[in-house]
Write a structure and sequence with these properties.
By secondary structure, the chain is α+β, with helices and mostly antiparallel strands. The chain is built from six helices and ten strands.
Length: about 290
């Protein structure tokens, strides 16, 4: 028999336990297996979902390096903006990586980081749990599925003639809301560029280097520092030696969407097990999205 004076305290304790249990259960994300959020956000910035499926790659323009064709890609996430000087500074500090030889690196934190070679870009993306995109991934993120010339559509827009903060020009966003994929800094991809002997000679003359690597990769998106608009068309590309930095080339990262879904599924299943099999080492997972 429970003494009457203890009943209110006992009922209060039961109610508290019920509230805690409900908070634990309903506080878990309602993620169905195989679904993907459209936006991810963590300490290294915002990433946007590019859904799986076909898109128009290349163009029938005689200057296009790739013929117009349909390409099918799995889903992936892409950085909403180019990697900024501020973001790259955190990487340089944390990873003790060499800082880029860039005039604005320390003075303009909101501008895109430039003066980095492909290995630098890969190192940053790996540190942030990401990777450098392929040419096809970059192009789909920039133009969507309808074969448009620029991220915003087909009419060209004026260039400011200088680098701008990475979150500038929201009206020029891509169909997936990525910013500055046409203009600002050119961006590295990991896709190989078929360099010719003539281009090798031109690079030696323009840089004054006697030795130039034949390992070139595609850079996309043109640059506000270039006078010609041609390379701002999303189907165009330029080649650049992978081991060579440029004051016009920056980058953004991507992440495989299937890895994210698998992470959430494992986290969710383990969390459900922890509810039924609590123990001294049972822990809840966490993920910002």
């Amino acid at each position: 028999m429970i003494p009457g004076r203890l009943i209110p305290a006992l009922l209060g304790g039961i109610l508290l336990l019920a509230l805690v249990a409900a908070g634990f259960y309903f506080g878990k994300p309602t993620v169905e297996r195989g679904t993907r959020p459209k936006v991810l956000q963590d300490k290294d910035g915002i990433m946007l979902l590019v859904p799986a499926g076909k898109f128009i790659f290349g163009d029938d323009d005689e200057q296009s390096p790739n013929k117009r064709q349909q390409v099918d890609l799995p889903a992936f996430y892409i950085d909403a903006t180019e990697v900024s000087n501020a973001q790259y500074t955190r990487f340089v500090t944390a990873a003790r990586h060499a800082a880029p030889d860039s005039e604005n690196f320390k003075t303009n934190p909101t501008l895109p980081v430039v003066g980095v070679n492909l290995d630098d870009a890969k190192s940053y993306c790996s540190w942030a749990g990401r990777r450098v995109p392929t040419e096809q991934e970059w192009e789909k993120a920039a133009r969507g599925v309808d074969g448009r010339i620029y991220p915003w559509g087909n009419p060209p827009l004026p260039s400011p003639g200088k680098l701008v903060p990475v979150d500038s020009y929201p009206e020029r966003q891509s169909p997936y809301k990525a910013l500055n994929m046409s203009g600002n800094a050119s961006e590295w991809t990991v896709s190989e560029f078929p360099v010719t002997d003539r281009e090798m000679d031109d690079m030696r003359k323009n840089t004054g280097r006697a030795e130039v690597s034949r390992n070139w990769c595609n850079v996309k998106g043109g640059s506000f520092l270039l006078e010609k608009d041609l390379f701002s068309r999303v189907y165009m590309r330029r080649g650049w030696p992978a081991n060579q930095a440029s004051p016009m080339i920056g980058f953004r990262c991507v992440k495989d969407a299937n890895l994210y879904v698998r992470f959430v599924e494992i986290w969710f299943i383990r969390g459900r097990r922890a509810q039924h099999c609590p123990g001294p080492t049972a822990r809840r997972g966490s993920f910002q999205s």
